[in-house]
Amino acid sequence: MPGGGGQAHRRKGGDGGRLGPLVRQPRPQATDGRHYPGPARRAVITAVDSSIIIDVLEPDPDHGPASREALRRCLREGSMVACDVVWAEVATAFGHAQAHAVEALGEIGIAYSPMSEDAALRAAACWYRFRRRSAGKGRIVADFLVGGHAVTQADRLLTRDRGFYRDYFKPLTLVVP
User: Fold this and answer.
1) Cα(62)–Cα(81) distance, rounded to whole angstroms?
2) d(CA 62, CA 152)
3) CATH number for the segment(s) 43-175
4) Distance CA 159, CA 162 (A)
5) Would you say 50 and 150 are in contact if contact means Cβ atoms under 8 Å apart?
């Protein structure tokens, strides 16, 4: 996990006001109360990797601004979710104040999305392939669980780790800040 070592729990509201307005604004409405007409399209579901969230919450001076803008863009285009693994990794940054982690994730606009059996099995298949190729060095199973969740339960993944996810989750669309 990027620096900070539990510092996030000391900030008011979990973010110290650094997130800015990430919450989605309602669409403008016509005078009769209806939404302005626009092209009918399905909102995109973006799974978010923990590194992106931590970039913003810690905040990371190198990656934070780009990660924050990527979160805003993804929120404008649909909804954002994080799986069990990401939830746990982010909560760890808050130390014993894990309720603040849940609050901060909600403020950013990220919903909890429990991992399905399909996602876990997809992760297992990719993890198995990785271990055969590289003798299991350099990655942990959590990375594969995040990828399995994104490829089966979302439309794309917001991450800084493009190479790994491209290699093992080929059909997954990646958003890289």
Assistant:
1) 24
2) 31
3) 3.40.50.1010
4) 7
5) no
What does the DSSP 8-state code read for residue 14? Answer: G
pTM of this structure? 0.75
| Proportion of the chain above pLDDT 90, given as a percent | 57
Cβ-contact 104, 8 below 8 angstroms = yes
Whole-number Å distance between alpha carbons of 112 and 82: 5
Instruction: Tell me the residue type at 148.
Output: G
pLDDT for residue 135:
67
Q: How many other C-beta atoms can be found within 10 angstroms of the C-beta atom of residue 122?
A: 23
Domain ranges of the chain: 43-175
Nearest alpha carbon to residue 14 among 47, 59, 46, 48: 59
CA distances from 117 to 13, 41, 123 (A): 34, 28, 10
Q: Name the region of 140 (left: φ>0; alpha: ψ -120 to 50; beta: rest).
A: beta
Neighbour count for residue 19 (Cβ, 10 Å): 20
Block residue for tokens 């297992």: 124
Question: Is the Cα dihedral 71, 73, 76, 79 positive or negative?
Answer: negative
Tell me the per-residue pLDDT of 52-78, one tens digit each, with 9 for 90 and over: 999 999 888 999 999 999 999 999 999
Please tell me the predicted confidence (pLDDT) of residue 6: 41
Phi-psi region of 29 (alpha: psi -120 to 50; beta: other; left: phi over 0): beta
